[in-house]
């Protein structure tokens, strides 16, 4: 299961904090699929076939800080453990435009990850960490992540989204080490 983190609604649609949801959307649409609302969990879901294998792509329809409220029950419904979850999320500690992959680790103040960890009962899920960079000067990180990307960065954002999709597909097809060998050279 691939989970794209973000906040619902048009006010947050193009913010840095929603880059994970943007990548999930791009992945779903690239396979010609559409989301439906899962009746038991309330999350948006779509199934795509990556390398011949069915993969559930999901987004919570809650605010990011409580993502686990919908993703936890969804994982339970499908019998998906943390080991089989790939989370797409924004990362302040990675330069803008870079993509990094890892399994587990801390949440680093990311409340969406904290909520998922609590709901899944483990930190051992895979992560596609989408670099948004640090805020300039003394700007509050919470304010920074909730602001839209500047229009001048649109081409770079599109590239980041495309690379995020490619990274998620590589994780499904090659596993963590194989995907890291490719993605970390970009």
TrEMBL record:
Residues binding tRNA, per UniProt: 12, 63, 65, 111
Query: Main location per UniProt?
Result: cytoplasm
Q: Which reaction does it catalyse?
A: an N-acyl-L-alpha-aminoacyl-tRNA + H2O = an N-acyl-L-amino acid + a tRNA + H(+)
Indicate where this protein resides in the cell: Cytoplasm
Name the domain of life this protein comes from. Bacteria
InterPro entries in the cross-refs: Pept_tRNA_hydro, Pept_tRNA_hydro_CS, Pept_tRNA_hydro_sf
Q: Which UniProt keywords apply?
A: Cytoplasm, Hydrolase, RNA-binding, tRNA-binding
Q: Which Pfam families match?
A: Pept_tRNA_hydro (PF01195)
Tell me the GO molecular function terms: peptidyl-tRNA hydrolase activity
Name the PROSITE patterns for this protein. Answer: PEPT_TRNA_HYDROL_1, PEPT_TRNA_HYDROL_2
Q: Which residues form the active site?
A: 17 (proton acceptor)
Enzyme Commission code(s) on record: 3.1.1.29
Query: Where is the site labelled Stabilizes the basic form of H active site to accept a proton?
Result: 90
Sites marked Discriminates between blocked and unblocked aminoacyl-tRNA: 7
Kindly state the subunit structure of this protein. Answer: Monomer.
Q: Which family does it belong to?
A: Belongs to the PTH family.
Known HAMAP family for this protein? Pept_tRNA_hydro_bact
The record's function comment reads: Catalyzes the release of premature peptidyl moieties from peptidyl-tRNA molecules trapped in stalled 50S ribosomal subunits, and thus maintains levels of free tRNAs and 50S ribosomes.
**What PANTHER family does the record point to?**
PEPTIDYL-TRNA HYDROLASE
The name on file for this protein is Peptidyl-tRNA hydrolase
What is the organism field in this record?
Gordonia phosphorivorans
What phylogenetic lineage does the species belong to?
Bacteria, Bacillati, Actinomycetota, Actinomycetes, Mycobacteriales
């Amino acid at each position: 299961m691939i989970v794209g983190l973000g906040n619902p609604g048009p006010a947050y649609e193009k913010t840095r904090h929603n880059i994970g949801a943007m990548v999930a959307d791009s992945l779903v649409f690239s396979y010609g699929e559409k989301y439906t609302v899962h009746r038991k969990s309330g999350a948006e879901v779509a199934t795509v076939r990556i390398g011949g294998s069915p993969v559930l792509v999901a987004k919570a329809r809650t605010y990011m800080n409580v993502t686990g409220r919908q993703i936890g029950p969804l994982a339970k419904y499908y019998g998906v453990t943390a080991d089989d979850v790939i989370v797409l999320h924004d990362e302040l500690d990675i330069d803008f435009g870079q993509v990094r992959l890892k399994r587990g680790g801390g949440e680093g103040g990311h409340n969406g990850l904290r909520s998922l960890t609590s709901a899944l009962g483990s930190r051992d899920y895979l992560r596609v960490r989408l670099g948004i960079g640090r805020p300039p000067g003394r700007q509050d990180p919470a304010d920074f992540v909730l602001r839209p990307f500047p229009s001048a960065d649109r081409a770079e954002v599109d590239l980041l989204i495309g690379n995020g999709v490619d990274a998620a597909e590589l994780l499904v097809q090659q596993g963590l080490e194989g995907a890291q060998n490719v993605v970390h050279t970009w």
